[in-house]
Amino acid sequence: MSVEAKVGLLVLVALLLLGGFVFVLGGVELGDQYDLFVDFDNPGNVQPGAPVNVGSIRVGRVDSLEYRGGRLDPQTGRRPLVRVKLRIDREIQDTIHEDALFYVTSQSVLGESVIAIDPGNPEGPALEDGAVVEGVDPPRLDLALSMAYELLESLTSLFRENREELQSLLASAANLIRQADELLAENDGRLDNILANIERATEQTNTVLEGADGIVNGQQLRRTLRNVDRTLASVSSEIDPLLSGAREALSGANEALGTIGPEQREEIQSAISQAADLAEEANGAIADARAIVTHIREGRGTVGGFVMDEEIYDDVQELLRDLKHNPWKLFWRE
């Protein structure tokens, strides 16, 4: 083989190796694929060419990342910050459904970011070519660390600027705890008595509540309620006939008054006047009786003193008791 042939063969092998590296490292896909677009507010460290996996099996790759800047997308009505374009194998299109989840995860311990897909409900419709979905943002550890550092720095500044006040506060707290401990130690027995009293009060309260529950749910109260129900039912059934009778009586009275002559009316008016006079005299008598009862209750007069004086009542009761046991004293005085 000539030198020119050897050089040509070497160049051909080098070109084949270069093409192989480009094919492997560049993520060139030979099969038929379709596009999906995923909106993220923060896609993490995902870069073009990153794998797209379903259950740790590679089914596509990240084609590109487009910065949207929070502008309104009229197609979806959302304001994404970053839109990621995915190239997915056509042969699995019918397995990725409309309720699928797209999220960023790590493929290995080295932290290479990939986009993982949870296919969703198998009974749901599949995502069409060019569909735009919303992804699940990864946790912002860098943001959390930054906020934690800012909070720690603020606390450090606060402690540094108020060191004396904090020392005084801690000293006061320690003094308060010490005094509370001394107080508890001095009144240990009294606290035991207080707790015992509280326990007894609780037991008595439970006893009272049990008794009240027995009264409320007792047979006597139930019988009383049943009697009240029966009474109300009886009154309800009899009230209508009574009202009808009263209406008939009033109607008859009106008819009777219509047939009365002038002389009879004068006699009725005279009788009513006499009844009014009798009522006034009765009211006066009742007032006098009330006055007498009031005098007696206040203990005024002989009768009031005899009735309301407890000593006289006790003496009379003792006399009656003595005569009951010794009736001969009525006939013979010692």
Write up this protein.
With 334 residues, the chain is an alpha/beta fold. Among the domains are: 1-30; 33-139, no CATH class; 144-186; 260-296. It is built from 8 helices and 7 strands, in the order αβββββββααααααα. It has helices at residues 3-25, 141-161, 163-186, 188-216, 219-259, 262-297, 301-308, 310-325, and strands at residues 33-40, 51-54, 57-67, 82-89, 101-106, 113-118, 131-134. The protein has a 7-stranded mixed sheet with strand order 5-6-2-3-4-1-7, with no helix packed on it. β2 and β3 (57-67) form a beta hairpin. It is elongated, with a radius of gyration of 54 Å. The mean pLDDT is 78.
What would the keywords be for this entry?
334 residues; alpha/beta; 7-stranded mixed beta sheet; 8 helices; elongated
